[in-house]
Amino acid sequence: MTFEVVDSLFTVSLNSIVTLALAAVLLLIGGAIRDRVGFLARFCIPAPVIGGTLFVVLNLILTLTGVMKFQFDVSLQDVFMLAFFTTVGMGASLRVLITGGKLFIIYWLVNVVITVLQTGIGVGVGGMVGLDAAYGIVSGPVALVGGHGGATSYGGTFEDMGYAGARLVGLTAATFGLVVANLTGGPLGRRLIERYHLTPSTDDNFHVDISDYEQKETVELNYDNVMKNLTVLFVSMALGSMLVTWISNMLNTFFELEVSIPTYVGSMFFAVLVRNLNDKFKFYQFSLSFNDSVGDVALGIYLSMALMGMNLLDLVGLAGPLLIVLCVQSVFLILLTYFVIFRILGKNYDAAVMCAGLIGHDLGSTPTAVANMTTIQSRYGPSRKAMIIVPIIGAFLIDVFYQPFVVWFISAYVPNLAA
Fold first, then answer.
1. What is the residue extent of each domain of the chain?
2. How do residues 20-71 score in pLDDT, each as one tens digit?
3. Which residues contact 408 (CB under 8 A, 6 or more apart)?
4. Under a CB-based contact definition with an 8 Å cutoff, are residues 379 and 359 in contact?
5. Neighbouring C-beta atoms of residue 202, cutoff 10 Å
6. CA 141, 401, 186: angle at the middle one, nearest 5?
7. CA–CA distance, 295 with 182 (Å, rounded to integer)
8. Choice between 55 and 95, residue whose per-residue pLDDT is larger
């Protein structure tokens, strides 16, 4: 950590270790505040967003008043980003997709279409109000489907391409989506149920293998098992990122395609391969609970670290157009879900509950989707289909399409200003 005067302003520069320590402290502060402020918990605002935003505001005030400012070494940020996306891949058992049945496939395809439409709205409406395509994409499925993690990751990619403030735009969009998803998902589901006088189904002929999602595997977390799980995680991070670099170079060299695939995409999909091979051949005892814990910590530290260095002034010129795009995204998805998707899913009680969940994870997050559905079920009765299908699709399987699609769209339609 160093202290110096830069441009007549006292500047504190934090090295990578101190930056990491501060990110962890802000994460804990954010969690404590969320637990004590009702509306933050109710809207599922992530702890690192709360703690990081408070520090960003403080840093901005200190800078504008000429007191001091902070600078950070965020070189460790990419490590936590890779770790988070790799744990997402490790948590995915593809046999769920195979055994999920017709409704499972339909719901997944519906979300595929939504991803395409959200991209079109972000770029199209954004273009009409003066937003570059990069900001339109990051305020579309990147933030609304990918959440704060996706917004920060792809936002960083766009900033490397020359689009200042892209991460802040994405984080703002993700937070906006969380609030709207919490406010509208439950009421939409209740409205459908009451309008069509729907009641819970008594059909028990719905069989999906969800053991990997409903139950944490009982694995003794001794030294040997912890090291094996960590080693597989690290190897997947390394080989996945190396594979993506190799593919990008090959496309650029042999096909003259200027493609830059984010390394975390490769790590995530490599982890999917490793997880499902291990499910079949049992190379080691995979611990889902350990994997989820590592993922939660990695995401928290990663978001907290990413937020610390944000400059709110970058959002000033984009705030108005961004709000218009987000309002259009929200209204469009709500109307599409109410008038079209409800009918595609079967126009029954399960469909109504699934629609509440869809609003939750396609505007906010998978926990928001579960919260919306749980609220409805506590009043009207259970929907086993919804509680099985929606969390699995929202937590991972939509990424099977969303990640490659966004990467392709960026390569095809977003100019690299930094080139």
1. 1-73, 77-419
2. 999 999 999 999 998 898 877 766 677 887 898 899 889 889 988 888 888 8
3. none
4. no
5. 5
6. 50
7. 24
8. 55
76, burial (CB in 10 Å: exposed 0-12, middle 13-18, buried 19+): middle
Query: How far apart are the C-alpha atoms of 122 and 263, rounded to whole Å?
Result: 24
The CA distance from 163 to 362, in Å, is 25
Residue 408: how many other CB atoms lie within 10 Å: 12
Dihedral (Cα; 134, 160, 48, 233), 10-degree rounding: 110
For residue 346, the Cα-to-chain-centroid distance in whole angstroms is: 28
Question: Could you give the count of Cα atoms lying within 13 Å of 212 in the half-sphere of its Cβ?
Answer: 22
What CA dihedral angle connects 416, 315, 142 and 250, to 10 degrees? 20
Q: Which two tokens stand for residue 42?
A: 């109710």
Please state the pTM of the whole predicted model.
0.71
Describe the crossing of helices 263-281 and 399-413 by its angle, rounded to 10 degrees.
150
How far apart (Å, rounded) are the C-alpha atoms in residues 214 and 276?
18
